[in-house]
């Protein structure tokens, strides 16, 4: 087995599951946004909401996992500014992964459309129906989503840079699975 620092199997699984859900939810959001009102559009919105709720719940699980299982240390030769940038970007990613689903839930409540997780579990409305508030929340949700995608692109570019230019193994830590779960 490999002695290099690595994330746990659980952390790796949550990382890639969240990545797939975020990109799937973002792509679905882009696609469905300008569709004419129809049963198909309502179905796609439901799927988008299910993805958002799943991301929110998985981020909570990931946060608990990260608190109880320390991530591997950053490479020893990494400059201080890059360490700060890594910590700030990770914090931003976690924050956005929590705030974006909440903004969607608020937007849905203000629009008068209940969130029913997987069509089975109705979530309480967080706001009364209010068209003006819903329109503001649509903008907030979109801005936050595009900000998250931009941050994910920077995150991925940094990992690729560390792997292929710095050769410090940063990217591979998210692919290697150790014995410690």
UniProtKB/TrEMBL annotation:
Compartment annotation: Cell membrane
Keyword Heme included in the entry's annotation: yes
Membrane topology listed for this record: Multi-pass membrane protein
InterPro entries cross-referenced by the UniProt entry: Cyt_b561_bac/Ni-Hgenase (IPR011577), Cytochrome_b561_oxidase (IPR052168), Di-haem_cyt_TM (IPR016174)
Domain Cytochrome b561 bacterial/Ni-hydrogenase: 6-175
Gene3D superfamilies documented for this protein: 1.20.120.1770
Membrane-crossing segments per the record: 12-32, 47-65, 93-123, 143-164
Keywords, alphabetical: Cell membrane, Electron transport, Heme, Iron, Membrane, Metal-binding, Transmembrane, Transmembrane helix, Transport
UniProt keyword Transmembrane helix present: yes
Cofactor dependence: heme b
Family of this protein: Belongs to the cytochrome b561 family.
PANTHER family: CYTOCHROME B561, CYTOCHROME B561 HOMOLOG 2
Name of this chain's protein: Cytochrome b
High-level lineage: Bacteria, Pseudomonadati, Pseudomonadota, Gammaproteobacteria, Nevskiales
């Amino acid at each position: 087995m490999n002695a290099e620092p690595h994330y746990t199997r659980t952390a790796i699984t949550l990382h890639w599951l969240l990545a797939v859900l975020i990109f799937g939810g973002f792509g679905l959001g882009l696609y469905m946004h300008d569709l004419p009102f129809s049963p198909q559009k309502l179905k796609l919105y439901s799927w988008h909401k299910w993805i958002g709720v799943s991301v929110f719940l998985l981020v909570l699980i990931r946060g608990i996992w990260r608190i109880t299982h320390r991530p591997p240390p950053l490479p020893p030769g990494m400059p201080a500014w890059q360490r700060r940038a890594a910590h700030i970007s990770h914090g931003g990613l976690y924050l956005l992964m929590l705030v974006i689903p909440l903004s969607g839930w608020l937007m849905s409540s203000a629009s008068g459309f209940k969130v029913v997780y997987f069509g089975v579990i109705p979530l309480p409305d967080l706001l009364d129906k209010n068209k003006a508030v819903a329109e503001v929340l649509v903008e907030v949700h979109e801005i936050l989503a595009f900000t998250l995608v931009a941050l994910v692109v920077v995150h991925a570019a940094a990992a690729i840079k560390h792997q292929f230019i710095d050769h410090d193994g940063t990217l591979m830590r998210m692919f290697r699975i150790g014995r410690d779960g």
